[in-house]
Amino acid sequence: STGYFKMGLIIKTFCLLFLLSNVFASDFTLHLLPTSVAQKTGALCLDGSPPGYYYRPGTSTTSFRVHFRGGGWCFSELDCYYRSLGYLGTSKAWPANIIDAVWGFMSNETNLNPEFAEWNTVYIEYCDGTSFTGDRDDPVYVQGTPLYFRG
């Protein structure tokens, strides 16, 4: 009977977590800058992939909140090279959609966030290693790999 009790507890816990994740989950859809536009304008991630943002529509037609993802700086060419291989330096591995439990002013639940719950949300991803400030025209080559500092 102990096994049945534990299994029942596990199932109830799973169901509760599932329900809570659906109540507080927010579905964001990825929008990448078209590659041709990214290359023409020079707006690139460290590895040369196009930058992007996630968007979750709200019920408002005029109000938007914009969140810039943090990520810190890379402080050397080698540091930037290693960063270009991961989530903070490339858009290649970003999922098409993210379901993120958000709280506070980013929540779309009116009981948690009565002021901003209905606003549209833009979540700008970070992938340039310079806090969106880079403006170097030519890439820097590190270990034979071009790195772009184009915020």
Give me some keywords for this one.
two-stranded antiparallel sheet, disordered N terminus, single chain, 7 strands, 151 residues
Structure description:
Helix content is 25%, strand content 23%. By secondary structure, it is an alpha+beta fold. The N and C termini lie far apart (61 Å). It has three helices and seven strands. It is elongated, with a radius of gyration of 20 Å. The chain has a five-stranded mixed beta sheet. The protein has a two-stranded antiparallel ribbon with strand order 6-7.
Return Rg in Å: 20 Å
Percentage of residues assigned to helices: 25-40%
Q: What is the N-to-C order of secondary-structure elements (H for helix, E for strand)?
A: HEHEEHEEEE
Low-confidence stretches: 1-25
Let me know the average pLDDT: 81
Shape: elongated
Query: How many DSSP E strands?
Result: 7
SS element count, helices: 3
* Strands side by side in the biggest sheet: 3-5-2-1-4
* Structural class assignment: alpha+beta
Strand share of the residues? 15-25%
> How would a crystallographer describe the biggest sheet?
5 strands, mixed
Distance between the termini: 61 Å
Write the layout of secondary structure elements.
Layout: H1 2-24, E1 25-32, H2 35-41, E2 52-56, E3 64-68, H3 77-84, E4 97-101, E5 120-124, E6 140-142, E7 145-147
Parallel strand pairs: 3-5
Antiparallel strand pairs: 1-2, 1-4, 2-5, 6-7
